Hints:
Radius of gyration: 35 Å
Number of domains: 2
Shape: elongated
Structural class: mainly alpha
Helix content: over 70%
Distance between the termini: 71 Å
Number of strands: 0
Strand content: under 5%
Amino acid sequence: MVHRFFLTRMEFSEGAQASLRAFLYVSNMLALLETRKTRMEEVGKRRFDEYWTAHQSEKKVLESEKQSLTEQIAALNAEIAAIPPKDDGYAKMVELQKKAENLASEKKALGLLKLKEKKAVQLQIDSTNNEIAPIQARINAAIEEVQKRIAPLQSRIEAIDTELTRPR
């Protein structure tokens, strides 16, 4: 036997009706808040656009300053890239690094029982690395010096970006 149920009239308990009213109220409030949020965003965007339309010269000055700072940073980054080869010991450092790599390969190729030979090779590797360290330190110091000049430029770019995107 097949049962068919037809709802002719919906009846809810008082608790269910209260829950439904609360749900509808919250839904309406969320929709209202979403509408207000959208309206506020539109007003904010309009005010932002109006401000920069009225202050075009200031915007151009900030944008050109930002472009100039970006170019300066690019030049300093190029200077950083050129520091290692420019250093007088760079070629020697590269040669010593290759020597250390070859010695490490030689040490790895030695058998398990050749401890004395491994120890001798390790001493050569350590000696080579000790020769590399002062050259690398000079290069790193030169790079850090240039990076110190980049930091204030980047902070000024951030300040300009903040000014250009600040709500009006």
